[in-house]
Amino acid sequence: HVQLVESGGGSVQVGGSLRLSCVASVDTIGRYCMGWFRQIPDKEREGVAGIESDGSTSYADSVKGRFTISWDNAKNTVYLQMNSLKPEDTAMYYCALATSPIRVSDEFRPSAYNVWGRGTQVTVS
């Protein structure tokens, strides 16, 4: 049973940076697709960044050039480096894992992922 635990959220000024971490309870890195999503109250959860088992990455247009997803095999950890943060980046950020292959077109679809962390809050003001 895989568990994901996010950390690294907090409050930051506009233009600042944060690095989110997602630790998996079992060896998942390089085996499954993982993604970062975010959600604000009364809005649908949206995909932010994804990383495939082969290491290829993808980003939502709203964060391209500012956010970077990466992983550390030795630590079973996926990171989301967030730079040049904007107020509209304020949200609860979730790490997600798909234990079955997903299509590239579904990489930002929440229902394609079956394991979720509890989230970490990011506030930009």
What's the total helix number? 0
How helix-rich are the residues, as a percent range?
under 10%
- How do the SSEs run, as a string of H and E? EEEEEEEEEEE
Q: In angstroms, what separates the terminal alpha carbons?
A: 37 Å
> Given the helix and strand composition, which structural class is it?
mainly beta
Percent range for β-strand residues: over 45%
State the total count of DSSP E strands. Answer: 11
Unreliable stretches covering 5 or more consecutive residues: none
Shape type: globular
* Rg: 13 Å
Largest sheet: 7 strands, mixed
User: What's the average pLDDT?
Assistant: 93
Q: What's the assembly state of these chains?
A: single chain
Protein model, in words:
The chain has 125 residues and is an all-beta fold. 0% of the residues lie in helices and 46% in strands. The chain contains no helices and 11 strands. It has strands at residues 4-7, 10-12, 18-24, 33-39, 46-51, 57-59, 67-72, 77-82, 91-98, 115-116, 120-124. The N and C termini lie far apart (37 Å). The mean pLDDT is 93.
